[in-house]
Specification:
Rossmann fold
């Protein structure tokens, strides 16, 4: 049985510009026992991945044309179709290919995604989708708003993974921000807090990796802004930094930065909004986050004795590895392969 993974439209699969979904899919593939069964479909990008199949770019009705292109490739043979963060794709494909098994991933708030905004949409998905995968408990709770969860069992929370290093590396006095340089991500809070901190701790470096097209935050002289960098570069930065900060004021479905920080031996300070508190269980989470509270946390962590204690605790308890994530996904996929085997046995 084939496992056909359709990436969201606009999600690039090349190394430099890979989005969160592509990163997740690549890591799943790396550790999956079903490598030979997997095809990954997405917009045409310069990818050398052996299982990636590009779909043609469309000029009009882009999402519709994109999913229709994928639909035309599918043959009549039953397969597993995995969709990420695009419930609207599921509605179209289920209508045109009803016999397939569908696994639908939710990376963001389902109430803000086309195709799962209403209770009726979500009830249809629950009834007709083989399995739902939520990347955090917060996302799951949002999906089941207005729906009685006790009548359903075709869902699971599987956190995204990161490769954990074997030993904590030597860290530099770097405080790091990664993400869009806007107020929703709390970049203004990061800048203000680190400016206060540097007044009494001038030996630290403040670095920000990311960009913002519609920027409305002034540039602070004390922050070294690197612009948009590749994910591999981000991981190298985290590996070097003693402290990372994820001060989002919007409801983050899940925070990758706290997870990546924990895997690479850094301490993350984050807001407690939505999924961030789940992904930063052993780090420092702040309710009603503001510059003063961030600065207070930085001052606390500037003590080597306290920092080392927190760092070791975070590193020791980290379990959200790519391998664990892939194993959990393969367990779901195995269920559909077992059904085929049972059917064959019965026929024989």
């Amino acid at each position: 049985m084939k496992i056909n993974i359709l990436l969201p439209f606009k999600e690039e699969f090349d190394c430099n510009n890979s989005g969160a979904v592509s990163i997740l899919v690549k890591e799943q593939f790396k550790y999956s026992k079903f490598k030979k069964n997997i095809n990954i479909y997405g917009v045409k990008t310069p990818s050398k991945h052996k299982s990636f199949i590009p779909l043609p770019r469309a000029k009009y009705l882009k999402n519709y044309s994109y999913v229709r292109s994928f639909s035309k490739i599918l043959n009549k043979e039953k397969c597993i179709i995995e969709l990420h963060n695009r419930p609207q794709y599921f509605h179209y494909l289920k209508k045109n290919h009803p016999i397939n098994n569908y696994i639908l991933f939710f990376h963001n708030n389902p109430l803000e995604l086309t195709g799962s905004e209403s209770i009726e949409d979500r009830e249809y998905i629950l009834k007709n989708c083989s399995y739902l995968v939520f990347l955090s408990n917060w996302i799951k709770k949002k999906f089941f708003e207005g729906i009685d969860i006790k009548y359903h069992n075709n869902f699971k929370v599987i956190y995204p993974g990161v490769n954990k290093i074997k030993n904590i590396p030597k860290k530099k006095k770097i405080i790091l921000f990664c993400g869009k340089l806007n107020k929703s991500k709390g970049y203004d809070l990061f800048c203000k807090a680190t400016k206060i901190f540097l007044n009494k701790n001038p030996s630290w470096q403040i670095i920000a990796a990311g960009s913002e097209i519609r920027r409305n935050i002034i540039k602070y002289d004390h922050v070294h802004e690197m612009g948009q960098v590749s994910h591999s570069k981000v991981l190298k930065l985290i590996k070097s930094a003693k402290i990372t900060i994820a001060p989002s004021i919007w409801d983050e479905p899940l925070g990758r930065l706290p997870i990546e920080s924990a895997a690479l031996g850094s301490v993350c300070i984050s807001s407690s909004n939505a999924g961030l508190s789940e992904s930063n269980q052993y780090g420092i989470t702040i309710n009603n986050i503001n510059p003063t509270k961030i600065n207070n946390a930085l001052v606390t962590l500037s003590s080597n004795k306290i920092y080392n204690k927190v760092q070791r605790q975070i590193f020791k308890h980290f379990s959200l590895t790519n391998k664990n994530h892939s194993v959990q996904m393969d367990e779901l996929r195995s269920f559909f392969f077992q059904i085929i085997i049972i059917i064959i046995i019965i026929i024989i």
